[in-house]
Inverse folding.
């Protein structure tokens, strides 16, 4: 029944199946059922990761930093991505992800390294669905070049300078 419902998303399923760990059609359909097929809902990959609960929380007060747990979210997506990430780092097929995991595990613990791999996989899925191109591990480390509008009104510039403790005459 799930495969019948997913017939409309065959193009997106094929794209997700190019990402490491998602060779099975049902796993690709599960991702689509969680995040959707149109990535225009999320402004950036970071917002998707935040929605999925794969970013650290910011728990800071009066200069003291507290726990760096991951944010809440992605009740069903997060454990699924953890399973996929564990399988990917144990296999020898995708050495770039395995090497990244091993580097992170040296500095951090296993859990934080796995969450980083989960985030990397989710960003890859976001890029694949957004660009409608197959997964390419050589392009995954590169960030998108943004051309933000750098103009600012005089009032905003004065306010910005005052917030950063500049003296404005």
């Amino acid at each position: 029944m799930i495969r019948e419902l997913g017939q409309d998303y065959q193009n997106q399923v094929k794209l997700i199946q190019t990402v490491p760990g998602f060779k099975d059609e049902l796993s690709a359909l599960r991702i689509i059922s969680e995040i959707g097929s149109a990535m225009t809902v999320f402004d950036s990959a970071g917002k998707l990761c935040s929605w999925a609960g794969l970013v650290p929380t910011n728990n800071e007060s009066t200069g003291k930093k507290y726990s760096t747990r991951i944010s809440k979210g992605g009740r069903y997506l997060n454990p699924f991505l953890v399973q996929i990430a564990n399988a990917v780092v144990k296999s020898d097929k995708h050495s770039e992800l395995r090497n990244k995991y091993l580097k992170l595990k040296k500095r951090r613990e296993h859990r934080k390294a796995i969450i980083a791999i989960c985030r990397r996989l989710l960003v890859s899925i976001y890029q694949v669905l957004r660009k409608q191109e197959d997964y390419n591990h050589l392009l995954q480390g590169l960030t998108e070049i943004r051309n933000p509008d750098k103009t600012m009104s005089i009032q905003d510039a004065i306010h910005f300078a005052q917030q950063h403790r500049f003296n404005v005459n």
